[in-house]
Amino acid sequence: MLKKYITSFVMLLLFCSLSAQSITGKWKTIDDNTGQAKSIVEIYESEGKIYGKIIELIKPKVENPICTECKGKDKDKPIVGLQIIDGLTKDDDVYNDGEILNPENGKVYKCQLKLDDNNDTLQVRGYIAFFYKTQYWKRIK
């Protein structure tokens, strides 16, 4: 009888650990104005922090665009390969305490990422003080 309970408990733990999915992987960004896919961002973990870089642009207006509006080390770097998510840490079901770069205007915002219940949509929120903008990215499977 005890063996049944232990087996059930182990199975429950295994199921719970498999259902908790990470935000790492490839995500399709969606343009706010057109609703069309804009780029592919790869989110990855390094030394306990979350980062993201653009790995592909979908139908860019110009070939091999550079970040002319960026400041500092990112100034005039190619947008493909550009790290846009920097140094987020996990706090319960939210990733925050890092930054996100908008390569269109070169501005850097505080960032918060949250995975939806189905693990296929990522809420991406950039903010300054009380002003924020939210996008919803789709997981590429």
From TrEMBL:
Keywords: Signal. Residues 25-139 form the DUF2147 domain. The keyword Protein biosynthesis does not apply. Pfam families: DUF2147. It comes from the Bacteria. PANTHER family: BLL5882 PROTEIN, BLR1215 PROTEIN. This is DUF2147 domain-containing protein. The lineage of its organism: Bacteria, Pseudomonadati, Bacteroidota, Flavobacteriia, Flavobacteriales.
